[in-house]
Amino acid sequence: MEKTIINNLGFPVLSTLIFLPIAGAVFLLFVNRSRGTVIKGVSLVISLITFILSIPLFVKFDRTTHLMQFVERHEWIPVWNINYHLGIDGISILFVLLSTLITILCVLISWNSIKMKTKEFYISLLVIEGAMIGVFCSLDFMLFYLFWEAMLIPMYLLIGVWGGPNRIYAATKFFLYTLVGSVLMLVGIIVLYLYSGGTFDILELMTKTYPYNMQLWLFWAFFAAFAVKVPMFPVHTWLPDAHTEAPTAGSVILAAVLIKMGAYGFLRFSLPLFPEASKAMTPAMLVLSVIAIIYGAVICLAQTDMKRLIAYSSVSHMGFVTLGIFSLNTQGMEGGILQMINHGIITGALFLSVGMIYDRTHTRQIADYGGVASVMPLYAAAFMIFTLASIGLPATNGFIGEFLIILGGFAAKQWAGVLAATGIIIGAGYMLWLYQRVFFMQINPKVAELKDINAREIVTLLPMVLLIFWIGLYPNTFLGFMHESVRHLLERINEGSGQEIAAAKNIMEILK
Q1: Which residue of 68, 232, 243, 288 is 20 to 30 Å from 267, comparing CA positions?
Q2: Helix axis angle, 36-60 to 118-137, nearest 10°
């Protein structure tokens, strides 16, 4: 098994990040549901403490190695060789930090908008946080699968209980799509367990070589789970419905973290475990990515609902992510990882913004707005920053991610880079058109009396604004985490090709 760095901090920080929110959810079970302020306050404090405890990961992380860090390992079910094994590397660390930050913002944005079953809502929110962090930290397949599935139930409840008029349909569709993909992944996990001689340890499984035909079948088994979660074209249809019907916090979690787990799965499992199959499937993955980029962008032009427009934009933007990952080069892969973080920040901020104005007007129809900038100038300024970041304006985080992905796409296949660039142009069209119709033009009487965002809402949006410019102006602060991990991953993918080349050279020497 590959050597790992032992816990850098000397205490189980990853377990704390996972189980503190879950413990907070258990505590809320015993709080009287009539004490709404206490429930909100406890949720906010728990999420704040979790975020603060995640900061040492950022500070103490060793960027000079690809090895796992902050490692925890304990026997769990010895008879099946299942272990409680946690650790993070340069690929997963940023997603842990994003998860802890997003949860705070979801608590704040829901402060006044959730009026029914408040206790159950915040319990669901905290459980999701713990499960999200668990997914990004797990180094045992059964532990990973447990956290992967654990997210389904609270997310189903967020959509089905606190969602819009068609919430049951959207929640059921979300649940069925993700469950079917997850079951196929479980079959793949069991096959790996049996073939490897009985281990679920992810790092140990990555040291083994699997027959090419087996790699192909397992690639598609894992693809079923990850492609649905991304979501890739054509298994994306659950996402617009889920986003449209979910409460604001549900949409933010979906956009910022949950759909990143599919792309993370490709990076953590599909590429290193099935390198030859991944290379063979690269043309198909590039085609699907380009289709998603253009299709999602064009569909946005026809939307009349703000949340639905942003939801379809996620299909387009996640197409960029998978394009970068399957370009199989440093620029594309690092751009894809960074763009996952960027998309979480930008689209999460857009959903937060839509939720704020929806709380005031109770409509998301674009036609019901107009002239909002004249009555809500602070809100209009923040939304403009998020819009410009979404279309990839230089000096914003969106530009850095898309630039690296386009570079990687060109290096992999020139046609992929060219077609992906057209998606950026269409994206600028639908986002600027949205902004024009909502914030400019003639003032709609329905919005004439609206009040600008308050202090709580400013605090909610401010971290997103700061991150947009931080990553846009100093991207290496974040890219530096992933350099070694991406380099090692690409070496793993190219190992088979390298062995074939070495064997061919040896044959030539013998013939000489």
Answers
A1: 243
A2: 10
Distances from the Cα of 366 to the Cα of 297, 319, 376, 382, 446, angstroms: 17, 25, 16, 18, 12
Q: Taking 80 as the threshold, does the pLDDT of residue 320 lie above it?
A: yes
User: Is it true that the peptide bond before 211 is cis, omega within 30 degrees of 0?
Assistant: no
DSSP state of 395: T
List of residues 6+ apart from 234 with CB closer than 8 A: none
* Total of domains in the chain: 1
Q: Is residue 384 included in any domain, yes or no?
A: yes
What proportion of the chain, given as a percentage, has pLDDT over 90? 62
Pair 247, 113: CB distance under 8 Å: yes
Q: Which residues pair with 138 in a beta bridge?
A: 86
In 280-307, which positions are buried (b, 16+ CB within 10 angstroms) versus exposed (e)?
ebbeebbbbbbbbbbbbbebbeebebbb
Q: Say yes or no to pLDDT of 502 above 50.
A: no
Q: Which residue has the tokens 């660390």?
A: 93
Establish if 71 belongs to a structural domain: no
Length of the chain: 512
CB 173 within 8 A of CB 217: no
Phi/psi for 72 (5° steps) reads -130, 135
Write out the two tokens for 234: 């054509």
- 242 assigned to some structural domain: no
Q: Where are the alpha helices (H) located in 151-247, listed in sequence order?
A: 152-162, 167-195, 202-205, 212-229, 238-245
Distance CA 85, CA 436 (A): 50
Is 320 domain-assigned?
A: yes
Say how many C-beta atoms besides its own lie within 10 A of residue 421's C-beta. 14
> Looking at the whole model, is its pTM more than 0.85?
yes
Going by their DSSP bridges, the two strands 82-88 and 69-77 should be labelled as: antiparallel
From its phi and psi, is residue 69 left (phi > 0), alpha (psi between -120 and 50) or beta?
beta
Beta bridge partners of 83: 75
pLDDT in tens, 251-295: 999 888 888 899 999 999 999 999 999 999 999 999 999 999 999
